Amino acid sequence: MNGENGEDDPLFGQVDQIGVACLDDFTIQYTLREPAAFFLSIASMWINWAEPQWLIEEKGDRWIEAGILHSFGPYVLFDWTHDASMTFIANPFWPGTEAIPKPSIKYVHGLFLDPEEQLANYEAGLLDKAEVPLAEIDRVKVDPVLSQELNIFADTCSYYYGFNVTKPPFDDPNVRKAFSWAVDRTALVENVTKGGQEPASWFSRPGLTASPSRNLGDDFGPPVTADPDKAKEFLAASSYGSPENLPQITLMYNEASGHARIAEAIQQMWKQTLGVDVNLTSQEFKVFLVTRHEDPPQIWRGGWCMDYPDASSFAKDVFRSDSGNNDTRWGNDRFDQLVDQAALETDLQKRHDLYVEAEKLLVEEDAAIIPLYWYTGVEVTKPYVQRTFGRGGMNMWEKWTMDK
Predict the structure, then answer these.
(1) What is the overall mean pLDDT for the chain?
(2) Which residue range forms the structural domain that includes residue 176?
């Protein structure tokens, strides 16, 4: 979808052409053009939940606002102050099920705050849970109170740097490899991020269906502890030959103290290993996303979280050559063939092997990105709140309890 309301989509407004039919009050039928091994994961996503057509037609874009939105679940939207906060209230009509019980907490009020503001409000007693910003992790870990309220859990996201492969010097894959092999991911997570993140050699988050995994014996891509000698060899083998012949290089990230610290650490690694000076610049997030999509800088910061628990949500959905999420300007016909074949394949081992081959093209042979680490959630929670997490750290408020 490209238009503001989806008008540019060739199927916009043509409900009878999209292969979805309502058979009765409780059954939706999907008809696919081709097999899709991951479709069951997509079918259960919120984007496929049935919505009241009459409400959308009557209210237009306002159908999602508080007091208008119709929903059925343990919580309903009570208030939405755009760009400031949202409040949800326990749904009195929710009967409760074994998997999704009736909530015991009546209201959930969320503020849209940066991690630094969250922690400040948390310590002031104004929030019951908060993210811990990178700059505060050391202090929180040694604080006698906050350390007992700290929770670190695996998250289903990947942190990476992307190259614009059309801009010198990263139009040369050997230069891209040199920059990737010069990054010590282990030192990065141990000395900079410090939140239990896992250093990454490829993009797709391990643990998702068919994703590469070290537990399965997968070992490829750039080393997690860097290889300075190999990095120098790649640079020497490139069309530029030496650091002196490289043009001025800029790394761009969205404004946040954590991203700045990571960029500064990697900037120093590139300087120490390759003798290259890299300029750092940042933009406000919304502006950054536009810049990255319309005119990507030579190197830029990226992050991706699963939409559905399958390797396709990473490899195909982000880096297929025609993906709107692929800001590298990189395309590889073999990669496209592999991820397309993996989407059709129903044998899990074969799917895994196809994604391994595709990832090797992405991060090793063509080195279109620098995978850095797989995320964790780093949060503090007041002791009177008992939290239950879903997959990937998902908040399941209906299973939370509060003793206050």
Answers:
(1) 93
(2) 154-377
